[in-house]
Amino acid sequence: MSAFFAGARFEIQALMRVPSTVLILAGAAVFYCWIYPAPYSQQIYRDMPVYALDRDDSPLSRMLLARIDATEELAIIDGSGNRYAAIAALKRGEVLGYIEIDEGFQREVTRGQSPAVGLFANAGYLLAYSQLTGSASSAILSTGQEIGVGLAAEISGGTHSARISQIPFSLAKKELYDPAGGYASFVVPAVAMIILQQTMLIGLGLLCDARRKIACSLPRGFFGRAAWTLGRASPWVVLYLLQFLIIRWLIFPDYHLPSLGHFTQLLLFMGLFFLTIAIFGLLVAEVFASSEDVIPFLLFSSLPIVFLSGFSWPLEDIPLPLQWLSGLLPSTAAVEGFVRLNQLGSGLPGAAWPMAHLALLALLYAVPLYFVTLKRYAHRTSA
């Protein structure tokens, strides 16, 4: 155990030589996980401004626009029917779309025809566009179904049979694991894993030069040196577990993110994740000559890691060599395992493969780290 604690003291001494690194290792992850979800905190847009171009100005067209305006997501701010004003407002960003009802709309409906309702939306804001078109389409379709039932009832003379013929079945939709159906609930848990990984890697890289200046005594024997190497990772595992507690039990509830995971299961999984990152980060720091070399590498690799993690783009749809590369990154297994535990509430059996993946990666990184450590610090070996 003395060798284990000696390795931990070695890393703490390196941190004390570069105290500014504390901002990265002990604060950056919490700060980014707190600030990142802020733009998506509302989860669902409310009262998005839209124009209404009602050229028919009939009771039916006014009823349809009233249905659209009554939805939570949409608010009609102008119904003047001026198409040029609507387009100008859309370009200026004053509205996110406009709805156009042509002249003769009610007449065509009563004749049994199917007139089109124009829906024009700004697709530059993907989430707003999706919710705008979905809400407007739902209001339009539900109104069309009611009208169809009424017309069929006039023909057949029976409301019940008309409703069955027009709406033979209904759809009951329930959002699983993301009750709000919001973007934050989908993206934040996965991004949090990458933030935790990259901040630790960058922080360990910043200590690269400090480690070379510390007088240390590398223990003799395989087990002593293995314990010393493992001890080097322990301070970072503890430090990041504390930050994870803040993120998961303070920040996530503050943003109303769904959380079904059990406390001990999450700590066990995240402890393995942080151990894998720490070993990987120490290996990267030892391979590079100085922090001036390792930091640019870690910074420029952050965005590719996001795309290789499997949540922003399915791993099955990327080339096979990139799939192999993603398998060498702890964040890939961590994203899958954390989502299963925290979002789906699957328990440890559901996260068995990601945990096995992380354990294999920890072993894969530990072997070269042991030999790199032996080569770099062998001349300091104590008698």
Automatic annotation (TrEMBL):
Q: Which residues form the ABC-2 type transporter transmembrane domain?
A: 22-366
> Where can this protein be found?
Cell membrane
Keyword terms, alphabetized? Cell membrane, Membrane, Transmembrane, Transmembrane helix
What Pfam families would the database entry show?
A: ABC2_membrane_3
Stretches assigned to coiled coil: none
Primary subcellular site in the record, as a coarse category: membrane
**Membrane-spanning ranges:** 21-39, 183-208, 229-251, 263-285, 297-315, 351-372
Superkingdom of origin? Bacteria
Provide the topology term for how it sits in the membrane.
Multi-pass membrane protein
Q: What InterPro entries is this protein classified in? A: ABC-2_transporter_component (IPR051449), ABC2_TM (IPR013525)
Q: What is this protein called?
A: Linearmycin resistance permease protein LnrN
Species source reads Microbulbifer aestuariivivens
